[in-house]
Amino acid sequence: MNPLFHEIFQTTRDITNKLNSCLKEHDLYSSQWTILYTINKNGPMSLTDIWKYLKVEAPTVTRTVARLEQLDWIVRTEGEDRREKIVSFSEEGKKKFPDVLASVLQFEEGLIETFNDEEQQQLLELICKLKGRANHWKS
């Protein structure tokens, strides 16, 4: 295995674990956060749109959304088609989201505080370049 990929995988796991620790005070996990962030960014979305956007399997998104609904973060409503479910913030979720966002932003700042603006831009460009290659790969 190319050591680069080993480091990417290990770093991703490490960041996810540390993010989960950060989110623990809000009784959330990173998988739940990604859905909340996506809804905040894009507005109400169908379950299908969420799993396509996040590139996660549908059953995983459905389970995570169900848990967020139990925790009163989100609500599901019927879309144009009765089978379609639209996910949006609950009133309670709208109130709590800014505190979670502040915690995540503080976590992110701590991760990149040793990078200057140029290094951050370089890293972003390299990640995007790698992502572009991965999107062209036929599995």
From TrEMBL:
Matches recorded under SMART domains: HTH_MARR
Pfam family, one: MarR
PROSITE patterns: HTH_MARR_2
Coiled-coil segments: none
Domain HTH marR-type: 1-132
Keywords from the UniProt entry: DNA-binding, Transcription, Transcription regulation
Gene3D superfamilies: Winged helix-like DNA-binding domain superfamily/Winged helix DNA-binding domain
UniProt keyword Metal-binding present: no
GO molecular function: DNA binding; DNA-binding transcription factor activity
InterPro entries named among the record's database cross-references: HTH_MarR-typ, WH-like_DNA-bd_sf, WH_DNA-bd_sf
Transmembrane segments: none
Record-given protein name: Transcriptional regulator
Species annotation: Viridibacillus arenosi FSL R5-213
